[in-house]
Amino acid sequence: xxxxxxxxVIDGPVPFAIWGLTAVGIIVLLIRRPTPAWLWRIVIxxxxxIGLGAGLVLWINGSKLxxxxxxxxxxxxxxxxxxxxxxxxxxxxxxxVWRKVVAALLVILALLSTILGINAAFGINTTVGSLLGVSAxxxxxxxxxxxxxxxxSGPLYRTWTPPAGMPAKGEVKRLSGAYAIPSTGGFAPRxxxxxxxxxxLVPDPPRLPFVVMMMGxxxxxxxxxxxxxxxxxxxxxxxxxxxxxxxxxxxxxGDQVGGPDPxxxxxxxxxxxxxxxxxxxxxxxxKNLNITLDHADWTIMGYSNGGACAFTWATQHPDxxxxxxxxxxxxxxxxxxxxxxxxxxxxxxxxxxxxxxxAAGIAAHPGAFAGHLAVFTVGEQDTGFIPGVxxxxxxxxxxxxxxxxxxxxGAEHVTGALDxxxxxxMELLYKRVGLSAP
Length: 438
Hints:
Elements: H1 2-5, H2 13-30, H3 36-63, H4 74-91, H5 97-122, H6 128-132, H7 156-159, E1 171-175, E2 192-196, E3 210-214, H8 224-236, E4 243-246, E5 266-267, E6 271-272, H9 273-288, E7 298-303, H10 305-316, E8 323-327, H11 338-345, H12 350-354, H13 358-364, E9 373-379, H14 386-399, E10 402-408, H15 415-433
Parallel strand pairs: 3-4, 3-7, 7-8, 8-9, 9-10
Antiparallel strand pairs: 1-2, 2-4, 5-6
Helix pairs in contact: 2-5, 3-4, 4-5, 8-15, 10-13
């Protein structure tokens, strides 16, 4: 079934086929001799559906349920979906068995079309697997063993010569089964994914910088965006790129609206999430991956919800993470549901909640961030996130991080933010960790 979970649901044939069949169903139901009663039913169904869809979009944006405003195209798909579903439902009472069958099928097609259309508007879940919260990557069957020693002859952009036959692109696999990352503190993450760049897939590969990345809420540990960016950079830099683990900071159900958000903290409800990222994942990487052991070459990185965790943990553990990257990050863990988070995960203790903010981590480690790289990016149209990202960039700069704040032209909070933010940040990281000339 891996082929099914790998099907493209953004711009492949699957969504266009579903949308086409839905359009045919609508046309079939509307082609008939009109009567006043039928016309009234259709008009009321369409008006009610459009109103419900538009009202839902306005409510979500007004309540900031997802933090950022919904993508513009959702304002089309939600009303169109509701209207089509109601059109199909009222058509179930039409005469003729074949029209009832078409109407029943159209209910299903309309639901699928709406889900696929809204998903395409966000652009985050690119495959059937990621949309359903099932990993589309094949399980890894072996990992390149760590080199016995680290060479210190100079930065890799200068000393590494790729051998003949090096793959043109990196490899993406799922870390599961015998290769799953153990979680020792009660947190139950979904399988992580790993990106191995071309330079890691050759005999006698060099030790490479290490990156841990997290995606947003709702979402899954999907390596699609960072793999695409790093393949492009590796092609220009002798196959060099960091080894990346894309790990899960949410837990099972994190791909669903209303799913868990542990707010990057250890809790009785979700277990030791920070322990997983700052103890278990590093220990696994050192034991199993051919990475440099110099923590100046280690980076914690996150998008949206994951960005809040990344900056928080970078400030709490400067000895582990030499660099931090936030792609349209939340300002701090739990910012979108602060009151409920304090009540649910912190036992009503607001001071404990604030102790898990980046500012508290910085205050606890004065002078520890000199020379650490911090990159924050945000979409130009992501007006709800821009102020918080700006405050975090200023906080990092004042703490001593070598800080860059970048606005991605024309981008909102979703695909454009990722496709514009990740390559920009990685260009800077390459210079920092010796993968390209400074």
